[in-house]
Design goal:
This protein is mainly alpha-helical. It has one domain. Helix content is 73%, strand content 3%. It has six helices and three strands, in the order αβααββααα. The chain has a three-stranded antiparallel sheet, with no helix packed on it. Helix 3 (100-122) runs antiparallel to helix 4 (137-159). The N and C termini lie far apart (94 Å).
Length: 204
């Protein structure tokens, strides 16, 4: 009788341990699954945000090209406003997904955003003729190449975020070509070559 009770108790304990073990495993599985779903959603939202930044810079690039070809303008493009609070929020919550190279990219982007704003403002020192504003071509050339860099690096980071490396392995003309490719802008080799030459002469 006692042996039967002991056997039953041991069997009950074993059943409880096994049940608890699989219960914990299942709870862990559900937690990891929920975290993965949350992570994937955050990553998708981050990509959407970066896509929007690329698109807006592509639109500005189109306008800058028009302005350089016709410096006397009655309207002009303005720098892209980036909400870095949102971008940094995604980076904090995707620290296990986005590597340190992405952090370098965003730090650079914050600096470049200020540079673009400052360089854009310097263009408005030109003379006003009636309703037209003269936009100095060398300032516009600098803006075009720097905007191309923004488009290029952000697009590169989207191709494969796991292996992304923030480095400048291409020439300025190649970066301009790739930026145009990413944003479906016609790339005129000789025209962009002259832009890059002016950029390299005036930019320091």
């Amino acid at each position: 009788m006692l042996e039967s009770i002991v056997s039953g108790t041991i069997a009950g304990l074993l059943a409880g341990i096994i049940s608890s073990f699989f219960g914990i495993r299942y709870a862990t599985y559900l937690s990891e699954k929920q975290n993965k779903i949350k992570e994937d959603k955050l990553l998708a939202n981050y990509h959407t945000e970066i896509d929007l930044i690329i698109y807006k810079h592509g639109q500005w690039l189109k306008q800058l090209i028009v302005e350089l070809k016709s410096p006397m303008a009655d309207r002009f493009g303005k720098p892209v406003e980036i909400d870095f609070d949102i971008v940094n929020f995604y980076h904090r919550n995707l620290i296990g997904v986005l590597n340190s190279e992405h952090r370098k990219l965003i730090s650079w982007l914050e600096l470049m955003s200020n540079v673009l704003k400052n360089n854009s403002n310097t263009r408005f020192d030109g003379k006003v003729d009636s309703s037209l504003l003269y936009l100095p071509t060398h300032h516009t050339s600098i803006l075009i190449v720097d905007v191309c860099k923004v488009i290029y690096f952000l697009s590169k980071s989207m191709v494969n975020h796991k292996t992304f490396i923030f480095d400048n392995s291409f020439s300025n003309i190649e970066i301009c070509r790739l930026a145009c490719e990413f944003t479906n802008i016609e790339f005129e080799d000789s025209w962009f070559s002259s832009v890059v030459n002016e950029y390299q002469e005036k930019h320091f």
